[in-house]
Amino acid sequence: MEFHIDVGVDGGFVWRALDEAGNELVTSAVLASREACVRAILTFRVEAPTAPVFDLAETRSARPPSPEPVRRRKVTAFVSLPRVARRRYDPGSGSRASSRQRP
Q: Strand ranges (DSSP E) for the chain?
């Protein structure tokens, strides 16, 4: 395994871990400096050999099925309009009745 430090597009630095065949195993987030990359690599080299492995794919299949969706009732909100607006508003048409007055 080998590690590469590279300059990112936005001027930050990233590090990558490559296997013997040159395949990328890990890519870091963009870090502020080259020194931050070196510290992260050193931490990775020390912590990775003893880090626990959590198989999240296996735990997802072991979860119980999700419950049936809750059926929601349609709720109509009643809004109290000011008295002036009540006279000019026709709730059936969705627009102001004064603009559609018939002779």
A: 2-7, 13-18, 24-27, 89-90, 95-96
